[in-house]
Known about the structure:
Blueprint lengths: L16 H18 L17 E2 L8 E6 L3 E4 L2 E7 L2 E3 L3 E2 L4 E2 H17 L9 E6 L5 H13 L5 E3 L2 E2 L1
Parallel strand pairs: 1-10, 2-8, 8-9
Antiparallel strand pairs: 2-3, 3-4, 4-5, 6-7
Helix pairs in contact: 2-3
Amino acid sequence: MFAKKKRRQHEQLNLNLTSMMDMFTIILVFLIFSFSSQDQNLKLDPDLTLPESTAAIEFKWAINVNLTPTELRVEQNTIAKVKKGKFANVKVDTDKKRIIPLFNLLKKFKDIESREKVNPTGDETVIAFQADKNLPFEAIDLVMKTAAQAGYPNFRFVVLKK
């Protein structure tokens, strides 16, 4: 009625270390050659103290936004003055959490970008954000929210390499 099942003897399997080492060597060589670093010349403000990082991510074309302890700049054009971490002499929409002149300028950039196809890589444009490490989070957050509302939700924080 019931057929007896033959029990298989378990064979001991051996790994071929030579093939595995070859595979790891090829992967290592590929990773070494695929790693590259790109630099972009950024003009750093003398009163700007950037945070430090050990991350290594490829730099892409971006709109430069600088937030120093004294002013907010976009592509070296002063947008607003900053005093004690607050924006001075500039209209800030507290309901929508945005800096009006920054929003208007970035919106113009977005319109020109979509009309003229100015991004050389064709990727979505990001903001290269240089913020002083001693500024309060609220000031940095307000700049980021303004940029996101203007159509630039992606950021690359500029840091000093350790």
